[in-house]
């Protein structure tokens, strides 16, 4: 079986010629597809920047090109000119069409313009395809930029159409994406979060950490997300801790994630909390869990999400957590700790409410909720669904 996977993947190349991906595309993820196919091919673009080899090894996921074939297509997101380039779009369409033609099955992750093109050719060439619905393009693009607001309605309608028409759809939420992008075919909700086996000792350490909180030390709030993506909402947390610290509280905000942090540093300086906002840069998967064990409260202040892996990972470490009312976040958290997108006043009120007793209760509650994302359980459900798809006759 020749399987093609399509999404908006951007490869990172290092000086020794190896390819790397964002940590969310690690070999654990690729193994889901490799076990289904004799040959796995992915469609991806490549960043122009070349990374130091040691840096790439430490911060990104290695892509094994001996087990995974790569079809490179032009990156239309690198600049406004590339986005409008008719020639680049023609090259991309031709490459994706040929990749679909050579495949037996297509798995297209949406939202993604690459995926929409692949689905178009899969339908034309009578190739079975499955869509993985991992986010809402309306929320992502509308909250991104002026250009995003122009594109948002088009991507919303395109995604709605391709999901509706698909015979197979896998959603990373249980409710939100299903309501917004319904599928007439066979579908399941199955998060793509891959948690290590939950250890009750982690919860015990968390509860001890809460008991030992002192007014002498700052409360550390954490968020794991790219720091140059405005819709992740970091700035609202910065404004909230600025307001609270002026009232005598002691909060620090630790941000883990790659990207240009200049805008958020400017916000922190303007808000008078430049020393209280710490930028940790990109962390490896293992480093993320160490970081989460160090924070006291986790917050997901995004303006858009699917079902955020980072939040589930924080819950698996027993973190008391707050989140905005978007995507699958309300499916995860206690409804009493959900705030409206961008509502600094509500973030302040919830942080003030989190005393030791409440943090203790939320730590237990979140840890128990995270058990629903047991890796083995989800992998069994996901694999059964994929096998149903791959056994479909052509």
Offer a concise description of the structure.
With about 400 residues, this protein is an alpha/beta fold. It contains 17 helices and 15 strands.
Strand content: 15-25%
Q: How many individual β-strands?
A: 15
Helix content: 40-55%
Based on CA inertia axes, which overall geometry fits?
Answer: globular
Distance between the termini: 12 Å
Low-confidence stretches: none
What's the number of helices? 17
Mean pLDDT: 93
- Rounded to an integer in angstroms, the radius of gyration calculated over CA atoms is 21 Å
Sheet with the most strands, sense and barrel status: 9 strands, mixed
Given the helix and strand composition, which structural class is it?
alpha/beta
Structure write-up:
The strands form two sheets. Strands 1, 2, 3, 4, 5, 6, 7, 8 and 9 form a nine-stranded mixed beta sheet that branches. This protein has helices at residues 27-34, 53-59, 80-84, 86-101, 113-124, 137-142, 146-165, 176-180, 200-211, 234-246, 262-270, 285-294, 309-316, 329-332, 344-353, 356-370, 375-390, and strands at residues 2-14, 19-21, 39-51, 61-62, 68-72, 105-110, 129-133, 168-171, 186-189, 219-224, 251-256, 277-281, 297-300, 321-324, 338-339. 45% of the residues lie in helices and 21% in strands. The mean pLDDT is 93. α4 crosses α5 and α10 packs across α15. It is of the alpha/beta class and 394 residues long. It starts with a strand and ends with a helix. β13, α13 (309-316) and β14 form a beta-alpha-beta unit.
Layout of strands and helices, then pairs:
Blueprint: E1 2-14, E2 19-21, H1 27-34, E3 39-51, H2 53-59, E4 61-62, E5 68-72, H3 80-84, H4 86-101, E6 105-110, H5 113-124, E7 129-133, H6 137-142, H7 146-165, E8 168-171, H8 176-180, E9 186-189, H9 200-211, E10 219-224, H10 234-246, E11 251-256, H11 262-270, E12 277-281, H12 285-294, E13 297-300, H13 309-316, E14 321-324, H14 329-332, E15 338-339, H15 344-353, H16 356-370, H17 375-390
Parallel strand pairs: 1-3, 1-6, 3-5, 6-7, 7-8, 8-9, 10-11, 10-13, 11-12, 13-14, 14-15
Antiparallel strand pairs: 1-2, 2-4
């Amino acid at each position: 079986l020749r399987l093609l996977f399509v999404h908006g993947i951007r490869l990172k190349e290092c000086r020794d010629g190896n390819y790397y991906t964002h940590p969310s595309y690690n070999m654990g993820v690729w193994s889901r597809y490799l076990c289904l196919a004799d040959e796995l091919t992915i469609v991806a673009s490549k960043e122009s920047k070349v990374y130091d080899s040691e840096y790439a090894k430490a911060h990104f996921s290695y892509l094994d090109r001996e087990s995974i074939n790569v079809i490179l297509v032009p990156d239309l997101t690198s600049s406004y000119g590339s986005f409008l380039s008719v020639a680049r779009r023609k090259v991309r369409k031709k490459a994706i069409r040929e990749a679909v033609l050579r495949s037996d099955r297509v798995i297209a992750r949406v939202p993604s313009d690459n995926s929409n093109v692949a689905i178009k050719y899969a339908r034309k060439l009578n190739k079975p395809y499955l869509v993985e619905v991992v986010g809402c393009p309306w929320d992502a693009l509308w909250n991104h930029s002026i250009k995003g607001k122009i594109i948002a309605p088009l991507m919303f309608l395109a995604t709605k159409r391709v999901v509706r028409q698909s015979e197979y759809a896998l959603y990373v939420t249980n409710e939100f994406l299903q309501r917004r992008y319904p599928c007439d075919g066979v579908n399941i909700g199955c998060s793509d979060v891959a948690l290590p086996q939950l250890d009750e000792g982690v919860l015990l350490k968390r509860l001890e950490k809460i008991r030992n909180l002192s007014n002498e030390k700052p409360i550390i709030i954490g968020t794991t997300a790219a720091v140059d993506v405005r819709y992740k909402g970091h700035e609202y947390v910065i404004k909230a801790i600025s307001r609270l610290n002026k009232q005598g509280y002691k909060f620090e905000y630790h941000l883990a994630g790659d990207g240009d942090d200049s805008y958020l540093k400017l916000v922190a300086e303007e808000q008078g909390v430049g020393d209280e906002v710490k930028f940790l840069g990109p962390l490896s998967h293992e480093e993320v869990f160490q970081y989460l064990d160090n924070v006291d409260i986790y917050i997901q202040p995004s303006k858009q999400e699917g079902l955020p892996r980072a939040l589930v990972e924080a819950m698996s470490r027993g973190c008391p957590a707050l989140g905005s009312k978007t995507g699958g976040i309300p499916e995860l958290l206690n409804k009493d700790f959900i705030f409206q997108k961008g509502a600094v006043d509500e973030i302040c009120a919830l942080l003030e409410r989190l005393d030791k007793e409440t943090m203790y209760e939320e730590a237990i509650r979140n840890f128990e909720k995270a058990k629903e994302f047991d890796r083995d359980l989800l992998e069994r459900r996901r694999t059964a669904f994929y096998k149903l798809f791959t056994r479909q006759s052509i």
